[in-house]
Design brief:
Histidinol_DH_monofunct; oxidoreductase; Rossmann fold; 424 residues; alpha/beta; 6-stranded parallel beta sheet; amino-acid biosynthesis; 5-stranded parallel beta sheet; NAD binding
């Protein structure tokens, strides 16, 4: 893991992956064919990309029950407790419609309504992610979404990982389809003979999923364009090198393009972490992925002082930020850009991935500068409500008409003035 200086941080910054021209054209072709051919195209692309031919791509109730029976009871308990924690956190995010009545009798307000249907993408590929089920489904349920559809790539055996199906069963999600990639996003956005289209698509995936979400945005809503996972750790001499190294590696094992960065003022800690990363990665089952991630996207940044270190953290704007310093809450107050912030030596990043409650669907690639974690707000719409009174129109009608004429919109002005008989 390389050690770099503060002035080399620019090399660590990444923009959202736009894919290659070939990938973008491939995604457009897939989406168009799913739109025109429906199930036939989905079946064809599943055979091509996942290596399995499926006549029935909706998961059956028997398959869900079989998965539930196949897992250890202790695992189900852990999943249930994690789901309860996540639900409790997201319930605190709920907001209500509100109305305010003015003295003149006008009523202004905001009406909050959940989307009708949400599509949840649960990634497959190099690992199975029951946690993605919880993090996407639970905020949608708390928001009041009536129909939640889950899509996830099938394995070579034509099955969905048991943990994913058990997580869905615990939440009561029964509309599940064995389809992944761009074809899954297209099916959710435009529908097929078997799958009715949704209004919102959330959940992380590979570059083809990200490009497909970008392509369908506007016809449906999406959460974000998620890139490879990232972690930045802000640490001082109070941190333990082996713990920081373990946390950096926890993100490196996600993907060969994942980024793990330590920012510190301590040269001793930098060297300790560098050695610990090398030692620990040697024994990890996903060694090749971790090695590629650490070599290509891992770094240790040594800063002259705390102010410079925090400035570096803000410049990186990481998806996950751990603050392992003598005064983590004090340092957090100076952080402006981060998807999720983990404070102190006991708040290892996997605590948030699985169990604590906050959402782990987070902005990546520096987009924490302007975006937020997935939340209940992502699954609701806010409508403005205006009920003007006669008294208010009498008082302000001429001003409104004049404003309209300033913009050259005569019909707007007349729409107000036609009601003059009501207020004169």
């Amino acid at each position: 893991m390389k050690i770099i200086q503060r002035n080399e941080v620019t090399s660590l910054k990444r923009s959202v992956d736009q894919g290659t021209e070939e990938q973008r054209e491939s995604v457009k072709k897939i989406i168009q064919e799913v739109r025109t051919e429906g199930n036939t195209a989905v079946k064809r692309f599943t055979e091509l990309f996942d290596g399995v031919s499926l006549d029935q791509w909706q998961v059956t109730e028997d398959e869900i029950d079989e998965a539930y029976e196949s897992v250890d009871g202790e695992f189900v308990k852990i999943l249930s407790e994690a789901a309860a924690n996540i639900r409790k956190f997201h319930e605190k995010q709920q907001s209500n419609s509100w109305f305010h009545t003015s003295e003149d009798g006008s009523i202004l307000g905001q009406k909050i309504t959940p989307v009708d249907a949400a599509g949840i993408y649960v990634p497959g590929g190099t690992a199975a992610y029951p946690s993605s089920v919880f993090m996407n489904v639970i905020p949608a349920q708390v928001a009041g979404v009536e129909r939640i559809v889950m899509v996830t790539p099938p394995g070579k055996d034509g099955k969905v990982p048991a943990g994913v199906l058990v997580s869905a069963k615990l939440l009561g999600v029964t509309e599940i389809y064995k389809v992944g990639g761009a074809q899954a996003i297209a099916a959710l956005a435009y529908g097929t003979e078997s799958l009715t289209a949704v209004d919102k698509i959330t959940g992380p995936g590979n570059v083809f999923v990200a490009l497909a979400k970008r392509e369908v945005f506007g016809d449906v809503d999406i959460d974000m364009i998620a890139g490879p996972s990232e972690i930045a750790v802000l640490a001082d001499d109070t941190a333990r090198g082996e713990e920081v190294a373990a946390d950096l590696l926890s993100q490196a094992e996600h993907d060969a393009r994942s980024s793990s960065v330590l920012v510190t003022t301590s040269e001793k800690l930098a060297k300790d972490v560098q050695q610990a990363v090398h030692n620990q990665m040697e024994t990890l089952p996903r060694y090749e992925i971790v090695k590629a991630s650490i070599e290509d996207y891992g770094a240790i940044v040594i800063c002259d002082n705390k102010k410079e270190a925090i400035s570096t953290i803000n410049e990186i704007a990481a998806e996950h930020l751990e603050i392992v310093t003598e005064n983590p809450f004090e340092d957090m107050a100076k952080v402006k850009h981060a998807g999720a912030i983990f404070l102190g030596p006991y708040s290892s990043e996997p605590v948030g991935d699985y169990f604590a409650g906050p959402n782990h669907v987070l902005p990546t690639s520096g987009t924490a500068r302007f975006s937020s974690p997935l939340s209940v707000d992502d699954f609701v719409k806010k409508s403005s409500v205006i009920s003007y009174s006669g008294q208010a129109l009498r008082e302000h009608g001429d001003k409104i008409a004049q404003f309209a004429r300033l913009e050259g919109l005569e019909a707007h002005a007349r729409a107000i003035e036609t009601r003059k008989g009501r207020w004169e």
